[in-house]
Structures are given as structure tokens and as C-alpha cells.
Design brief:
By secondary structure, this protein is an all-alpha fold. The protein is built from 11 helices and no strands. Helix 2 packs parallel to helix 9, helix 6 runs antiparallel to helix 8 and helix 8 runs antiparallel to helix 9. The protein starts with a helix and ends in a 15-residue tail after the last helix. 28% of the residues are buried. The N terminus is likely disordered.
Length: 247
């Protein structure tokens, strides 16, 4: 059914916006090896111990919210000038290469921009590089995060809002043919669509909460649009490009 294909397509689209379907993925913990039970005997139950609760898997909207949480405290008072943007663009490739292969940075940035920022502030390798380039390490990080987050806001907010509307239309379509469907199938599709729509709305809310751009910044982004998209991996050369800060 085309409705279910729409749900799948929207979910894939949302994950691609994050740069990788594996973003925030958590490795499944291996089960403890079971010991064979002695015949006729039952294993005694441990008293006072509760079974560990499984962590709820995050939806893509929840991932966006987690990624941008606390960003206002870092980039909220930053306003990018044309010179700032050009500085980030100039050093981006070296900065990106610097973080590649850094497992701790990978883990941090996959949780949130805030954690990635705090990690690099204390990272000797990054600080040494910034000094060699005559950069203020903290200021450069704030400028980079401001540029990246605003670009994501500009690129994806409208798309997610449109996708949420498409899901609403799909729900109406199913409601219109409800009497011709099995009840279980109807409930399953409505549930899937509503969950996907909720994640879209959560993503939109998170994107809209990103600080900026100011009116002045909008002009700067327009003037440097091609280079910024190239930096973020969204220049149209490849499908499903990077979200930047690739590490």
C-alpha cells in the first residue's frame, strides 16, 4: 500500500538528514551465558534484585532534540559575520580531518553538539591545532557550531513540516477507506503514521529552537550558500550527504 511506503520513505529521509542511519545507534548488550540447569532442580531467584529495564529506542525526532539540547548556552550569543563564515570554511577540512578516528569525539558528537563542544575544549590535540592556526579555540568552535546548526535549521525545518502534512493527508486517506480494511491492519497503519508524525513534529520543534539566524546572518548565509552546502555535504553531488562534524 502506498501509505506504508510513504511512512517508510519519510523515516528513511529523516535518518538521512542526520547523516547516517546509524547515528545514535546503541550496540545491543550480549546476553550472559546461561548455565545449564541441574535436572530436577530450579535455579533460586535472587532476592531484592530487579531486572534491568531496557532503554527506550529513540525516534529520529527525539535524536534531533537530544542533539541540539543545550546549544543555546553555547551559540546563543554568537552572531556570524561574513569573515567568521569564511574563516570556518577555510579551516573546515583540517578541522574535520583532525577529529577523524577519535572514538571519544565520535561518541560525544553522536550524543549532542554540546558534549562534542565540551570534549574538544579540553582536547589537547585540538587546542594545539587551533594555536598553530592562530585561532581562538573556544571562539572557533562556537562559530563552527553556529554555522552548522543554522544550516541544518535552514535545510530541514520546512521539509519536516511538509512531511508532517503529508502524513496527515495519509491518515485521512486511510480513514476514508477504513471500512474496507481489516481492523488490525487499520490500527497498525494509523499507529505507525501517528508515531512518525509525532517524531516529525518533535524534530521541527528542536530545529526551530536552534539559535539564529539573525537578519544579518541570513544575508551572510545566502552569500556563502554554495560553499556552506559543500562543507555540510549537501551540495547535490551525492545523495544523503554528511551532516558535517563528521569526525
Amino acid at each position: 500500500m502506498k501509505t506504508m511506503r510513504l511512512v517508510a520513505a519519510l523515516a528513511v529521509f529523516a535518518m538521512l538528514c542526520l547523516g547516517s542511519s546509524a547515528l545514535f545507534a546503541q550496540e545491543a548488550k550480549p546476553k550472559a551465558e546461561e548455565k545449564p540447569k541441574a535436572e530436577g532442580k530450579e535455579e533460586p531467584k535472587a532476592e531484592g534484585k530487579e531486572e534491568p529495564k531496557e532503554e527506550k529506542e529513540l525516534g529520529f525526532g527525539d535524536m534531533f532534540a537530544k542533539m541540539f539540547k543545550g546549544l543555546d548556552g553555547i551559540t546563543g550569543k554568537v552572531e556570524l559575520t561574513d569573515a567568521d563564515v569564511k574563516l570556518v570554511l577555510k579551516h573546515w577540512k583540517e578541522f574535520d580531518d583532525l577529529t577523524k578516528g577519535d572514538e571519544k569525539f565520535e561518541n560525544a558528537k553522536n550524543l549532542s553538539f554540546k558534549e562534542a563542544y565540551e570534549y574538544l575544549l579540553k582536547n589537547e590535540k585540538y587546542q594545539k591545532w587551533a594555536k598553530e592556526k592562530s585561532l581562538d579555540g573556544e571562539k572557533f568552535l562556537k562559530q563552527t557550531l553556529r554555522l552548522m546548526s543554522i544550516q541544518m535549521k535552514l535545510m530541514y525545518t520546512e521539509s519536516f513540516e511538509e512531511s508532517a502534512k503529508q502524513i496527515e493527508d495519509a491518515i485521512k486517506e486511510i480513514e476514508g477507506v477504513k471500512e474496507h480494511m481489516e481492523e488490525a491492519e487499520y490500527k497498525e497503519q494509523i499507529k505507525s503514521l501517528n508515531e512518525t508524525k509525532a517524531q516529525m513534529q518533535t524534530a521541527v520543534k528542536a530545529l526551530k529552537a536552534i539559535p539564529g539566524p539573525t537578519d544579518a546572518e541570513k544575508k551572510v548565509f545566502e552569500a556563502n550558500e554554495a560553499e556552506i552546502k559543500k562543507m555540510m555535504g549537501n551540495d547535490g553531488a551525492e545523495e544523503g550527504g554528511d551532516d558535517g562534524m563528521d569526525g
